[in-house]
């Protein structure tokens, strides 16, 4: 079982939402991109992550970073 990353006061979900919107990528489009990389994600899961009510796994964070073409620094600030 993959370890969940605790957010520890960092708004990871808000950062994901901000970067995604800056890139002009919709939630459904990001979920499709992640699924093509074999990362288990539904739109409902993405919504919960962006709202900060669901923890994100390392694999999901890595996939989102790759799909958005951003850095861990940008997502974890």
TrEMBL record:
<protein>
    <submittedName>
        <fullName>Helix-turn-helix domain-containing protein</fullName>
    </submittedName>
</protein>
<feature type="domain" description="HTH cro/C1-type">
    <location>
        <begin position="16"/>
        <end position="75"/>
    </location>
</feature>
<dbReference type="Pfam" id="PF01381">
    <property type="entry name" value="HTH_3"/>
</dbReference>
<dbReference type="InterPro" id="IPR001387">
    <property type="entry name" value="Cro/C1-type_HTH"/>
</dbReference>
<dbReference type="InterPro" id="IPR010982">
    <property type="entry name" value="Lambda_DNA-bd_dom_sf"/>
</dbReference>
């Amino acid at each position: 079982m993959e370890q969940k990353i605790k957010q520890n006061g960092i708004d990871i979900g808000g950062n994901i939402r901000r970067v995604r919107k800056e890139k002009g990528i919709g939630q459904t489009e990001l979920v499709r991109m992640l699924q093509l990389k074999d990362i288990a994600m539904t739109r409902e899961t993405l919504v919960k992550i962006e709202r900060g009510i669901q923890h994100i796994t390392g694999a999901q964070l890595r996939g989102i970073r790759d799909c958005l073409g951003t850095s861990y620094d940008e997502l974890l600030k």
